[in-house]
Amino acid sequence: MLRPNPVEQAVLEQWGLQVLMEKDCPPEQALERFLTKLSEAVEKKEECP
Predict the structure, then answer these.
(1) Share of the chain above pLDDT 90, in %
(2) Distance CA 19, CA 3 (A)
(3) d(CA 15, CA 43)
(4) Is the pLDDT of residue 36 over 80?
(5) Is 46 buried (19+), middle (13-18) or exposed (0-12) by CB count in 10 A?
(6) Hey, is 23 helix, strand or coil?
(7) Helix, strand, coil shares of the chain as percentages rounded to 5?
(8) Tens digits of per-residue pLDDT, 15-33?
(9) Distance between CA atoms of 44 and 46, rounded to whole angstroms?
């Protein structure tokens, strides 16, 4: 989510989805930042046995 929305967050959490938000992130950089963090998390997980 680009902006916090408590209603959307509550609905998604009822479905078992966790909302990811990046504070102070311009919308035009949000996707790139998300994908970078996702890639780093996957790489870190692959390194652990």
Answers:
(1) 33
(2) 11
(3) 28
(4) yes
(5) exposed
(6) coil
(7) 60, 0, 40
(8) 999 888 777 888 899 899 9
(9) 5
